[in-house]
Amino acid sequence: MGLDKKSEENPFSKEVVKEWTTEQEYWDEWYEELEDRHAKWSTKIKDFFVYRIGWRTREWWINTKWYFHNLRIFQPVLKTWRSFDYHYQVDLFKFGIEQLIKAKEYYGNELAEDAEKRIGAMKALIAEIDRDYDEEVRERMKFDRRNSGRVTKYADGSVCFHHDSEGYEDELHKLFEEIAKERKLHYQKIFDLIIGQSKEDIEKEMERRIAMMPEEEKQSMSKAELNHKVYMEVWNGSGIEGWYD
Predict the structure, then answer these.
(1) Of 8, 112, 181, 231, which is most buried by a Cβ count within 10 Å?
(2) Which of 160, 164, 161 is nearest to 172 (CA)?
(3) What is the pLDDT of residues 194-241, one digit of tens each?
C-alpha cells in the first residue's frame, strides 16, 4: 500500500476565456493593454495638474504675475489692516476704488465723457468715506473730554478726573448723537453712490428737463441727440456696476 498522493488541479481544466492562434498575437495584445494603461495613467496625472491644481500654463502665469503685482500694490494697506474695527474694512474698500481710478485714468478705453462721469462719482465716494469719523470729529470728542470736570493729582502720582456725572454724560450723549447723525448722512451718500441712480428717477428727471426746454432748442437736435444730451446732464456716473477700466 503506497502513500496517498495529493491531488493537483489540472491547469487545462479551467474554462477558456480567450484564445490566440499564435504567441505573437498574445504578446502584441498584451503590449497594447500596457500602453492603454500607461496612457490612462498619464491622462490622470495630467488632469490632476491641469484641472485640479490649475497649472495651466497661461492661467498659472497670469495668476502668479497678478499675485506679486497685487502684493506690491496693496502692501501699504495690508500691513495696517486689522479685523477688529469696521474702519479697516472701509479703508480696504476705499483703497481698491483708488486703484480702479488710476487704472481707469491710465488704461481705460471708455469714452472720455462717460469715464469722467464715473471717475467723478468714485472720487466723490472716496471723499465721503474720508469724512466718516475723520480727524475733525476726533478732535471735537477730545475737546469735549478736556473741557469737562476737574482734574486732581495726588502726592503718590495718581490722577483723578472729577466729572459732574449727570451733566457730563448728557453733554457726551448729545455730542455722540450729533456725530452719529453726521456719519449716517455720510453713509447714506456713500451707499447712494455705490447703488447709483435708479432708471425711473433718471427717466423722470429727463422728461422734466425736456419739457422745460425751449422749442427752438429741441428742434435743433434729433431725438437721439436730445435724449443723449439730457441723459448726460442727469446721470452723475454713480453705480458700482458700471465702474470698470
Answers:
(1) 231
(2) 164
(3) 888 888 888 888 888 888 888 888 788 888 888 888 888 888 888 888
| Strand spans (E) along the chain | 150-153, 159-162
Instruction: Give the C-alpha separation, 225 to 210, whole Å.
Output: 12
Cα separation of 189 and 48, whole Å?
49
Number of neighbouring beta carbons within 10 Å of residue 227: 13
- Joined together, the cell numbers standing for residue 143 give 475737546
Task: Go through the chain and tell me how many residues it has.
Answer: 245
List the Cα angle 241/244/245 in 5-degree steps.
Answer: 175
DSSP 3-state of 131: helix
**What is the tens place of the pLDDT at every residue in 158-204?**
777 666 556 666 777 787 788 778 778 888 888 989 888 888 888 88
pLDDT of 27 > 60? The answer is yes
Are the C-beta atoms of residues 219 and 161 closer than 8 Å to each other? Answer: no
For residues 57, 62, 64, 68, the Cα torsion angle rounded to the nearest 10 degrees is 160
Distance CA 208, CA 196 (A): 20
Cα dihedral across residues 59, 62, 68, 73: positive or negative: negative
- Torsion of Cα atoms, 82 then 83 then 88 then 90, to 10°: 160
Q: Which amino acid belongs to residue 41?
A: W
